Amino acid sequence: MHDRRKIIRNVLFLAIVLQAFVLMIPLFYMLSTSFKLPSEVFDLPIRWIPEQLHFENYIQPLQEKPFLRWMFNSAFVATIVTILNVLTSALAGYSFAKFTYPGRDLLFGFILATFMIPLEAMIVPLFVLVKDLGWLNSYIGLIIPAGGSAFGIFMMRQHMIAMPDELMEAARIDGASEFRIFWNVVLPISQSALVSLAIFAFMWNWNSFLYPLLVASQDAYRTLPLGLASFESAYSTNYPQLMAVSFLSMLPVLILFFVLQNRFIESMALSGIKG
Amino acid sequence: MHFTWNYRTTTNLWGFLFALPAALLFVVFAAYPILQTFYFSFTEYNLAQPPQFIGLENYQTILTTPIFLDSVGFTFKYAVFTYIPTLILALILALALNSRIPLRGTLRMVNFIPVVISWVIVAVIWKLLFHLQGLINVALSQIGITPFNWLLERESAQWAIIIPSIWKETGFYMVIFLAGLQNIPGVYYEASMIDGASAWQRFRYITVPMLRPTIVLSIVVAIINGLKIFIPPFVMTQGGPAGATRVMALIIYQTAFAFNRMGRASAMAVVLFIIILILTFTQTRLYGTKTE
After folding, report:
1. What's the pTM value of the predicted model, to 2 decimals?
2. Which of A230, B167, B203, B231 has an alpha carbon within 20 to 30 A of B100's alpha carbon?
3. Which residues of A129-164 are buried (b: 16+ CB within 10 A; e: fewer)?
4. A259 reaches B (C-beta below 8 A)
């Protein structure tokens, strides 16, 4: 009886290690292809470690296409949008959690309702609006419309409802201004929620595709996913270069993930529970 | 603590001001565009000229031509065939990686890697995998299946969109289920062990009922995510072959920006919006309007 259980446990363990291994095969394939010559890509039997590593696959596309600019665009836009998301969400979440004013619940309900409006359902007027504002192919066009996050507001409100009112009251009696209370009392004790939201927003925006696709048609304002997609359609025969560039593109988020993995997974879990 | 009426009013005015930046963004970049989508859907509009009111004509067109209905069909097929396997796999993985096994942390992390990779990269990698001489055909030829061009045949092209989606999304739902499992109080299991319940009984009578809300929520979230899918067909097939992988978001995008029919695209968007609205409503009914 005991032995049988032990065997089952070992088989299960092996199965799940095998599953993890199989799951990673596409990424091994990508990495391996990125070091090959175009003529070697489909050689049989498959050579997982190429005889000679062709690093030029990583260098050539960077010289021919503005990949560094695209990477900068992604990093810049995602960073600013993340800061805006965290700031507007913290402010609004605090407002909905700790103040009473006429129309508060209506406003909160209205913002929650936008939760369910998919971007996919409003691309036409959004494009027209951004165009009319003169924001096509500009950083402001990539950043401002993405500055609010319904999910962020919801998450912050949930977090801040649990904060004791006495903290703010004490600061008020001491004569602190409302904004100072928010900045020096509320924000510091919300740190963990703020970090979770920041990670979530950054990943989301780093990988964002449809909205930038509407706004940025010029190379100079493309973000990395857009650049990669345009590179893919133009160079789809040069798989090694395509794979090299893909690997470079996923590196920043992957590094961030390895450094902050627990936080990442935590913030995803939150998004699911509360979304 | 007793404040004067004036003081409280000032405080609450500040509270309102705190909500203002977010509220403005939502009015301008969400509420206004969605209202305009409805308005445009009743017009003929090509960006060059102002919208011309044409009543229900766009709706008549899209609901009577097979192109749009086919895309609705494939979108639902995609959602069902992607998310049923995804959720089942995610649940099995969550159960396995919630038990005390060696390498638990590493295995969780590995399963989460596809979630953090951008969809464009996933689509590009899988396009190579599905290549006529790519890894998948190589593997299949080992078991006697003749290599074929996955992306050029209707049925296989659809699977070439569905399979990478399962690969990418399972880790996300696994984490959600893990969070759900960890919220089940350990005392329930301890008590049942004392009563001599078997592993199956513990699963059947504690885990499943306690995890039910998480599962129900995940199903609805998954279906809604499925209906919004855009990147894999956009990158891998452009909706082809012969429209076999043209999902709703893609046909909306193409109608608007390739064929410059903004009004018709808006009518399609309204249909997508209404479907998602109904599902979201179902979600709140199933899950209860729980905001705490």
Report:
1. 0.90
2. B167
3. bbeeeebbbbeebbbbbbbbbbbbbbbbbbbbeebe
4. no
